[in-house]
């Protein structure tokens, strides 16, 4: 990477909040790399600490299948609990190995990234400020949701140590033993002191550190994306204000004033497209990871299909209506109960089923289409 000048606060788009970047050290990481072309110690510490947290945890969950009793539901439970750690690991590796692209993409947060004519700077400034503030709202929302979730999870753990060590089937049926934050297994006597306290402290530290840093990384990517949208909006403003003058004067090369303006816009557009392509290449690993998680959720949703998808229809297909009153009432009750089925849930409220997955896909598609339309 060619060395670049650091980005100062005054160069950033008005209204764009970069305080969280400074708080998590990301602002210094990016500026140091822009100046020296080398990753600073803060980024290396984040990488090492992240791998120390995530790699052992993920590895323990997969080798646990050889040391404790598992059924299909428990196996899915343990596997799903590895996903946040896997996501955190992917995020850290992405920013570490794609720091060159990240530093280049941060040019997009500059308010003078593309040329703005003098007579349009006030309007352009208002557009940039509005988009910057909208970006801040979503970033603040990400941090608040993450923080509330983290505090709730640490203070009200739900994973039963006894279930993980000694039981299979429905976790809610196990009411004995201590609770911990993650549904993970460790090669230690987890239900005994001081191992339980050590594991609880490890999971709490992992949960708080990874959760907030993950929110910072997500906000960083989203903020860059919104800045790209802001730059395209400024380009659209310049295009929409092109007017053909009555006296269409030409220079010595025969080019009119409006043609020269259009030519400059085309060059700026080509520049933005190059940044769009780089942004797409940076996002590709994240999109792949999210798709992989969606596939795992799809596999988990098979619980509902395996255990109950056709049971209520099978009862209905019997001759229940020819039987006595007591049988008909019992059969009707069975049909109602079989609709519930066996399924994993998120936060004990949202079933992980095919319907839930389709809703996630629909929301993801809608969001992607909206972002795509903004960029195009």
Explain this structure:
Helix content is 67%, strand content 2%. The protein has 376 residues and is an all-alpha fold. Strands 1-2 form a two-stranded antiparallel sheet. A two-stranded antiparallel ribbon has the order 3-4. A hairpin with a 3-residue loop joins strand 3 (345-346) and strand 4. Helix 2 (26-36) packs across helix 6 (99-105). It is extended, with a radius of gyration of 27 Å.
Describe the protein's topology:
Blueprint: H1 19-23, H2 26-36, H3 41-63, H4 72-80, H5 83-97, H6 99-105, H7 121-155, E1 159-160, H8 161-166, E2 179-180, H9 195-240, H10 257-300, H11 302-308, H12 311-316, H13 325-340, E3 345-346, E4 350-351, H14 354-375
Helix pairs in contact: 2-6, 3-5, 5-9, 5-10, 6-10, 7-9, 9-10, 10-14
Which labels suit this protein?
mainly alpha, two-stranded antiparallel ribbon, 14 helices, two-stranded antiparallel sheet, 4 strands, 2% strand, extended, single chain, 376 residues, 67% helix
Brief characterization of the structure:
This protein has 376 residues and is an all-alpha fold. It has helices at 19-23, 26-36, 41-63, 72-80, 83-97, 99-105, 121-155, 161-166, 195-240, 257-300, 302-308, 311-316, 325-340, 354-375; strands at residues 159-160, 179-180, 345-346, 350-351. The longest helix has 46 residues, at 195-240.
Instruction: Kindly report the average pLDDT value.
Output: 78
Largest sheet composition: 2 strands, antiparallel
Beginning-to-end CA distance, first to last residue: 28 Å
* Beta content: under 5%
Stretches with pLDDT under 50, minimum 5 residues: 304-309, 346-350
Number of DSSP strand runs: 4
Q: Which strand order does the major sheet show? A: 1-2
- Cα shape: extended
Oligomer: single chain
Count, helices: 14
Helix content: 55-70%
Structural class: mainly alpha
Element string (H = helix, E = strand): HHHHHHHEHEHHHHHEEH
Radius of gyration: 27 Å
